[in-house]
Structures are given as C-alpha cells and as structure tokens.
From TrEMBL, chain A:
Its main location: membrane. It is found in: Membrane. Gene3D superfamilies: 6.10.340.10, Histidine kinase-like ATPase, C-terminal domain. Keywords: Coiled coil, Kinase, Membrane, Phosphoprotein, Transferase, Transmembrane, Transmembrane helix. Residues 318-370 form the HAMP domain. It comes from Faecalicatena orotica. It comes from the Bacteria. GO terms for cellular component: membrane. This is HAMP domain-containing protein.
From TrEMBL, chain B:
InterPro entries: Bact_solute-bd_prot1 (IPR050490), SBP (IPR006059). Residues 1-24 form the signal peptide. It comes from Faecalicatena orotica. It comes from the Bacteria. This is ABC-type glycerol-3-phosphate transport system substrate-binding protein. Pfam families: SBP_bac_8. Keywords: Signal.
Length: 595, 427
C-alpha cells in the first residue's frame, strides 16, 4: 500500500495526533467489546470448568470410593464363604439334629473348625439349637444374656444371611469394639431350630480395603448403619476438620450435594447387603488445588489473548486508518498553492476511489479557477472598453455632424451619404453599451455598413435587406450580420467588379428567428465550407484553431462564439454553397431571445 | 441511522458474548431414551443332562425371554449335575440363603418341602394364580388339588397336565430285535425271558446304577411292587411306619435279581453314567420319564422305543413336575418369576397338544403317547412316599452290601426300619 508521508508528533500533542480519530475510536471500542467478551467468556468457562471439575472429581472419587466398596464387598464375600463353610460343615449340621453331644463329637467338630484358619479370624463360636457352645477358647456364655446381646439381636428375621457387625466384644471377653460376622445355622433337610455362628474378626479383615485405598491424599471411612465409624484411613497431616465436615455435611442430605469445592468432596456408597457405608473424603486443600491450577492457566491464556487482540486491533486499525489520515491531512492542508498536488493511493479499497475523486475535483477546481480569473480579466477589459466608448462617441458624433454640415454646405452628396451612414453605423454599433438591439436596428446597422462599402466599391454590388413582419421588434445580440456581409464582399465578390447582389432577410421558421445572408458571388470553397460549418459543433477553444483569422475568420468566429455564449448553444450557424453564390444562415431559438 | 445500526450490532455482539457462556452454564439436557425400567432378571438354575449336554428347559427359557423381552428375562445358571446332586445343592443354597428365584423339583422331598414352607422360604402362589386366571384354568383340578395345602395356600406350581410327566421303560429296539423281540414284553415273566434272551445274545439287558439315588432300578422295582394289590396299598402310603412287609421283601429280591442282568460295576456308577451307557447301546433297557426323551439327540431317539412297565404300569406324580418361587426377592422379580411359572404351564399345554396329536414328533415320542393313552395303572413316585434319608443315605450305604449278598433281605428291611426310627427321632 502506498500512502503519502505523515508527520509524526512528539509529546502529548504527538500522541494525540498519533492516537485519535477513527483509529482511537476503533481501538477503544474493539478493546472494550473484546474485553467484555473475554471477561464474560472467562466467567462462563470458569463456571463450566468449576462445575465440570467438580463433576469430574466427584466421578473420580466416586470411582475410588466404589473401588473401596468393591473391596469391602469382596471382604464380605470372603467372610460369607467362610461362614458358609462353617454352617454346611457336616459336624456343625449334626449338632442341629443330634439329641446329645458326646465329648468325641465336640472334639471332632472343634478340631475341624480350627482348620478354617484365616489371618483375619480372631475367634469363632458355634452355638447349636440346644444351647451347646463350641469354640477354641472354651467360651461358656449365659444364653439368656446372649439372646439379649447386640450380636444376637442383629440377626433379626434374617433366614441365614451373614451379618457383619461393629460392636463391643462381650462374647470373647475383650470388651473392645470389633468386627463380627454372625450367621444362623440352619438344618438342611428338615425343620429344626437354628444354631448361631459367631466369628470375631481382627483388624486384618480390612487389609484388602486398605490396599484398595490407593489415593493417599484422601480420607476413607467405613461407617455402619448407626453412623459409627468402624474403620478409617486418614492421610498424614490432614487437619481434624473432617470430623466437623462429616457431621455437618455427610449426615445432612441437603448439604451433601454442595456445589462448592471449598469444603472438599464427599463420596459415599452403601452396601445393601451389609448396610455398611464406605465414605471417601477429599479435603478442600486437594480439590481447590486442582481448580486453582486450571484457573491460573485459563487466566494466563485469556490475558494473553486479550493483549494480542488489543495489539492486533491497534496494528490493523493503523493499516486501515493510515490512508484515511493521509486523505484527511491532504484535504486539511489544501490551498491555492497546492492545485498541482495529487493524492496517490493504492490500497485496493474504496479509499482509492475517494482519492481519484478528490484528484478530479482538484482538477475541476483548478479549471474553474482559471475560467473565473479569465472571465474577471475579460470583464475588466470590457468595462474599460465600455468606459472608453462612452467617452469617444460624443466627440466622434460631433465631428461626423460637422463633416456632414460642411458636405451639405459644399453640396458633396457622396460625402454627406457616407458620413450619414458611418454615423448611423457607429451609433448602432455602440448602442449606449447595450448588447442586444432590435432586428430592425441590426438590419439598419448592416445596411449602413453596406452603404459605406458601396461608396468604397463603386458599382460592385447592390443589396436588399428585409425583415418579415413581426420580427423587427425582436431583440437580438448586435453586430452579427456585419462580419458575414463583410466576408460576402471580401470573398464572394473577389472575382467580379460589378453586378454583385446581397440579400439579407430576417424571418421566423420552426420556432427559430432566422437570418439569411446570400450573395451571388463566387461560392465558398468546400474546405472552407467544412470548417465554417463545424464551428457550431466544436468547443470554443477549438473554434479559434479552426478558422484562419487573417482572412476575416476572426469576425465569423466572434459572431459564432457570441451567439453560442448568449443563447446557450441553442443556435444554428451554417453556410450553403450554391451554384452561383453562397448563403449563410443563422437560426436562434425564439425562447432564448430577450424580450 | 448508520450510528444506530452500529449500536445494534454492538448490542447483538455483547448479548451473544454474554449468552454464549451462560448457555453453556445451563444444566445439561441429557439426551436419554426413556426405555422405562430395566428388564428384571429372574435367577433360575436349570440342569443340563451330562450325557447329552441338553436341557429340557432350554426351550422354556428362550420362549419366555422372547415373550417378555424388555420386561423380564430368565437369568439361567446352567448346571451340569445329576438330579439328586441338584436336590442336595438346593438344600445347601437354602441354608446359605442363596436359592434362585425359581426352584425346580420343589415337591420331591417332603421334609425339605415342609422345611421350606414352615420357614416361609416359598411364596404363596395363590394370589398370582388368581391374578392370572388362564394359568389356574390350564392346570387339571386333580393336579392342582395335589399341590394345594390344607390352608388353601399353593406353594407348588405343577404342569397343567401329566402327559409329559410319565415314566416307563425306554428300550433299544434294535438290540431287542437281535434278541428276537419286536415289541417290549408285557408281563414280568416275559420281561425276565427277554432279559435272558438278550444276555444269551451277549447284550447287557439293563442299564442300572447305584451310586447316588438308585433311581432307575427303583423305578423297575416299585413298578414290580405296584403290580399287586398289597404292593399298591404299600406304595400309596405316605411315609410308611415300617418297611418290613412281604411286598417290600419281594421287591428287594426282585431288585437283587435285576442286578444279575446289568453291568458288573453297576452299583458303583451313578445315574448319568448309566444313561450315557444306555444311549451308547451298551445296554438294551432303561427306565425314566418323558423328560429324558426330550433331552435325547435325534440320532439316539430313532432306535428307541417306549413301553409301560410290565403289567401296563406307568409312574406319575402330580407334584413331580412342580416348581416353586422362593421368598426374599423383590416384588418385580417375584412377579416375573410367577409369570415364568404361568408361561411354563402355557408352553407345556401347547407342547402337550402337539404331543397328544403326534405333530412333528419322533417314533419314540409316538410310542410314548401310545403307552400313555393305553396305560391301565399309574403308580406314584416312591421318592415322594418314602423318607429321603432312606432313599439317599440308607440305600447308598446298605444296598451295595445287600446286592453283594452280604446281608439278607430281612436284615436289610430291619435296618431300614431302624434308620426310620432314628430319622423320626431327629425330627
């Protein structure tokens, strides 16, 4: 893109010059709009990211929680399998149908049961349907107390499902809170009362759960249906606020679904078989860390995008506004001295057309200014001439009147006639400075001229001048016929010495006032005819070049110019070459005439 | 005008910029097809015949799943196990509270059935049958009566008719033809002659077994028992108080005699082995019900014939075909399971009609239907009449010795009564 040079400012003024107008508005507007867009987009995305992050983290922690729950279920399944081994054991089954228990039976059974050696199995107790008790620790329970214990009560109406309990050990004497697996022992074949199997489990029962709790930043809890925490894994360094969180949010259904990440995320799932709940707690310090990192990256990205956008807008608006500024400064600095300066733009935009239009306008202005200057000069000259004419006629008319009186005294008819004609010719010629005269006056003027010429060229020609009634009083610009008859004498009668005839007529035809000047002399030559007839068509400047002025062309040219200027080109002017003679016709549209 | 237009554009841009993120913030409109509730699976365990790898209930499961697609489906655990093994598993599943929603063979063992009903382990089907009138209407009244408790509760869901529940003799026509028999003997004398003729031809006459249940030999033996009026009276009793009767002694001796016409290791093999050997042409005569015919491959069926036991006797018990619903499943599963039982009766009615009209059935099935239509005596299933412990434990423990001649018939029956006393005492 080529543009003109532009001054670069300095200081505040320079800055204003550099950063104002369309560019300033464009940069400020676009910066504000994009700022709002980026800000709102950031807010929107931030909200989405927060929600999605929460959803993602919740899903992730739910997955981890389900994994722990799955591990807990596997532990239950293993316990269930172990209790199934106990209750389907032939010796255990026999305790339900045997009427009496021998020492051998007891020994055999206890020995068999001791084979069920599991790392998490602390102790077992089988109570048959007659109250007989079998264990490796020689436990002897008061059955009445036992039936009132939480362990027995927990079996409820279940037929024979394995129940997992977290309760105080009142069976095996430790009185500590422990996990228990209890189950009814049912007889297979026929109707009998049920026995009870009680397994006390040590802390290793949760080994699998601990192993499945992979994420060491999270806390895990196993809670029974009474909301007692039976087992927990707390990460090192985690503050004790989880107590409060657990109480406030987890057991409050309205709070569990809190959308804020501030307080961390709880995931919980309850195993329907055991009614134990596995809870995973991600503290706020963990969840906020994730969202803070995302927000930081997002903020950096949006900040960078905003800066790039503003810089980009400034750069591109500069490219766009430079030619406008160039146009503006060129127009602002325009004066008379810069009529020859032109705008040079090649932006391949609409601005190029503006530049071209400006250039054309400057050219037109220059042309008009020249015209105006020329016309002003002509007007001055004309005024001078008019003033001169106003001074001279009185002296000239007095002189001519004196010559006429002397000729009359001396009876010099020719001088009298010539003097009278000249006086009339000059009087009409000047017409007190008026430009237009009546047709009759124009005919009188040309007749005066011909009378003088007749005296000068004895017997060379005669003439007839006539006006159609109704045309005499029409006003027409003066001295349009004299140069034509002058040419008729000069060129038409150049080959004769007598017998010449000139007919001058004024008449109306087809809405035109027409003048015909015809002679019977030598016809106009074709070359001259062609040039004369082009005069009504060409421009004023070309008209001058068309006619050779030394040969009387100046007069003709003057007539045509005056007619065209006076009557706004609503005229006709042409010559017709005839077999004997030449006719010149002038036609002026009647609407254009002065009244 | 132009300024106003620009303002409008700016407002639109800002509104778009505001709405874009906000629209993204609106709750997700998840496109989810509403297919209603998930189809409920009905846990069932069906047996696969180890000899043929086929199950008589495959057609039922497939037809039900097609009929109730999207609502229910039979979630089958296919179990390759003998019938007696399955019944033992059933007891184990019960004490572990792991029974499937629908159990087959629910009426075989009276004690176990009593245990189930008294402990409310089964669902009373009466409300379901009342809700599905066509189900109740499709069950013959005498069969329904046999499955109805005195209280009016119904825990057993039998087939509508007994036409597919008869047991008799299945024999290899070609092997009998080689021994000079075109039809199966109609009397016990002719039966023994036939066995001799087969043996003379070097063909093992009977495919018997011992281990587990003694089902096939006991079918022969009880049909022999039912051939006399005294025998009928004994077998018609529910849980006799003593087995020391002349009819039982006669039956035991007949049983002992039959083992002289079977494999040397018959006492040691189980039912599945005996069936497999029979289907492989290793013996000429077998005994079982229509359910075995259903599971037979076509190439095996084409050389087989069906006949009543000598004396024109067939075995059938209404409760034999009965299934039951177990308690403890949620309402939808139980509802679907009840529909499965009703569907089973409906399907059986359609198949029974085809069987009765011999439409598209094999020659073996034709001979079965001929036998059913011309049978003169129907005997009950001994499994439902005698103590399970006698049938299973005692027979397994003591019959091998008896068949080897270690103990005589009188001693065996005495021991049976002693065991009976113990059983009663345990109860």
């Amino acid at each position: 893109m080529k543009t003109g040079s532009r001054e670069s400012g300095t200081g505040k003024a320079g800055y204003r010059k550099y950063f104002f107008g369309i560019r300033k508005k464009a940069v400020v507007s676009i910066t504000v709009i994009f700022g709002i867009i980026f800000f709102l987009t950031y807010l929107g995305i931030n909200k989405i990211v927060k929600d999605n992050t929460r959803e993602f983290l919740t899903d992730q922690y739910s997955y981890l929680n389900d994994k722990v729950l799955g591990s807990f279920r596997n532990t239950y399944d293993e316990l269930n399998s172990l209790t199934a081994d106990f209750v389907t054991n032939d010796y255990v089954q026999k305790t339900l149908t045997n009427q009496t228990v021998t020492a051998s039976d007891r020994d055999m059974m206890e020995r068999t049961l001791s084979y069920y050696n599991k790392s998490f199995l602390d102790s077992y107790l089988v109570i048959d349907n007659k109250g007989n008790q079998y264990s490796q620790k020689g436990i002897r329970l008061d059955m009445e107390k036992f039936r009132k214990s939480a362990i027995y009560q927990s079996l409820g109406d279940e037929y024979s499902k394995t129940k997992i309990l977290w309760t105080r050990d009142v069976i095996f004497g430790t009185n500590e809170m422990s996990f228990f697996a209890v189950r009814y022992i049912r007889e297979m074949n026929s109707v009998h009362d049920a026995g009870v199997l009680i397994l006390k489990l040590n802390e290793r029962v949760m080994d699998a759960v601990r192993e499945s709790a992979e994420n060491e930043e999270l806390a895990y809890f196993i809670v029974n249906s009474d909301k007692e925490i039976c087992y927990k894994i707390i990460p090192d360094g985690m503050d004790e606020s989880w107590h409060q969180e657990l109480n406030e949010r987890l057991w409050n259904p309205d709070e569990t679904e809190s959308k804020s990440l501030k307080n961390g995320i709880f995931s919980s799932s309850t195993d329907e078989k055991t009614m134990f709940t596995v809870i995973t707690y991600a503290p706020g310090s963990v969840t906020n860390q994730v969202i803070r990192e995302i927000q930081l990256v997002m903020g950096l990205i949006f900040g960078l995008m905003f800066v790039l956008t503003v810089a980009g807008v400034a750069f591109f608006t500069k490219r766009l506004t430079s030619p406008i500024e160039y146009l503006s400064s060129t127009m602002r600095d325009f004066d008379d001295s810069k009529l020859d300066e032109r705008i040079s733009l090649d932006t391949n935009t609409e601005l190029d057309f503006i530049g071209h239009a400006y250039n054309k306008m400057i050219e037109k202005v220059k042309s008009l200014m020249n015209d105006v200057m020329k016309k002003e000069k002509e007007l001055k000259d004309s005024e001078m001439q008019t003033m001169l004419y106003q001074i001279r006629p009185h002296f000239l008319y007095n002189t001519l009147d004196t010559i006429y009186m002397l000729a009359r005294i001396q009876k010099e008819e020719t001088i009298m006639k010539m003097t009278q004609s000249l006086s009339r010719f000059l009087r009409i010629n000047l017409s007190n400075g008026r430009e237009s005269i009546e047709v009759s006056q124009e005919l009188e003027h040309v007749s005066s001229y011909l009378e003088i010429q007749k005296i000068r060229n004895t017997d060379l020609f005669e003439y007839e001048a006539s006006a159609e009634p109704g045309t005499e009083k029409l006003f027409v610009t003066k001295m349009i016929l004299q140069p034509i008859v002058e040419n008729s004498i000069k060129h038409g009668f150049r080959d004769i010495y007598s017998g010449g005839m000139i007919w001058i007529r004024a008449y109306c035809e087809d809405g035109y006032l027409c003048f015909s000047v015809e002679n019977n002399g030598t016809p106009v030559l074709p070359d001259a005819l062609e040039k004369l007839n082009r005069m009504e068509q060409v421009s004023m400047d070309e008209m001058d070049m068309l006619i050779e002025k030394r040969q009387g062309g100046f007069g003709i040219c003057n007539v045509v110019k005056r007619l065209r200027l006076k009557y706004n080109d609503q005229i006709r002017f042409y010559y017709v070459a005839k077999s004997a003679g030449t006719e010149c016709v002038i036609k002026i549209r009647l609407e254009e005439l002065e009244h | 005008m132009r300024k106003r237009k620009m303002m409008n554009v700016c407002v639109c841009l800002i509104a778009f910029a505001v709405l874009l993120p906000l629209s993204a913030c609106s709750p997700k409109q998840e496109v989810q097809r509403n297919d209603g509730e998930e189809a409920a699976g009905i846990p069932v365990t069906f047996l696969i015949n180890p000899a043929t790898n086929l199950s008589e209930n495959q057609e039922l499961a497939e037809a039900f799943n097609e009929e109730y697609e999207g609502e229910y489906y039979v979630d089958v655990e296919w179990l390759t196990e003998s019938a007696s093994g399955y019944r033992e598993k059933l007891k184990q599943w019960n004490i572990l509270d792991e029974m499937p929603a629908v159990i087959t063979d629910a009426g075989f063992d009276y004690d176990f059935y009593t245990l189930l009903t008294e402990n409310k382990r089964l669902v009373n089907l009466r409300p379901y049958m009342d809700a599905i009138p066509q189900w109740k209407a499709a069950v013959e009244p005498e069969i329904l009566d046999a499955c109805t408790e005195e209280s009016g509760d119904i825990y057993l869901a039998p087939l509508g008719s007994g036409i597919q529940s008869y047991a008799g003799i299945i024999y290899n026509k070609e092997l009998l033809r080689q021994a000079g028999y075109e039809t199966f003997p109609k009397t016990w004398e002719a039966f023994w002659d036939c066995l001799d003729a087969l043996q003379a031809k070097g063909i093992t006459p009977l495919s018997l077994h011992g281990y587990g249940s003694y089902w096939v030999p006991m079918l022969f033996a009880t049909s022999y028992l039912y051939g006399t009026q005294e025998g009928q009276a004994f077998l018609d009793q529910d849980f006799p108080d003593s087995y020391q009767t002349p009819e039982m002694a006669d039956m035991m001796e007949m049983l002992d005699r039959m083992y002289g016409y079977t494999y040397a290791d018959a006492v040691e093999i189980d039912y599945d082995e005996a069936e497999e050997r029979f289907c492989s042409w290793e013996a000429a005569i077998f005994a079982n019900g229509y359910w075995m015919i259903q599971e037979m491959p076509d190439n095996v069926k084409e050389n087989m014939g069906f006949a009543p036991f000598p004396g024109n006797i067939l075995m059938n018990s209404p409760r034999m075909s009965a299934w039951a619903l177990t308690a403890g499943y949620d309402a939808k599963v139980t509802d679907g399971a009840a529909k499965l039982l009703a569907f089973r009766v409906e399907l059986d009615a359609r198949n029974s009609e085809k069987l009765r009209n011999k439409e598209g059935v094999s020659a073996l099935e034709c001979s079965y239907i001929d036998a059913v239509e011309s049978v003169s005596t129907i005997m009950p299933n001994y499994q439902m009449k005698w103590e399970q412990e006698i049938q299973n434990d005692f027979f397994t423990e003591r019959l091998p010795g008896y068949l080897d001649g270690e103990i005589d018939t009188g001693t065996l029956l005495k021991e049976m009564d002693e065991r009976l006393e113990q059983i009663r005492a345990k109860k």
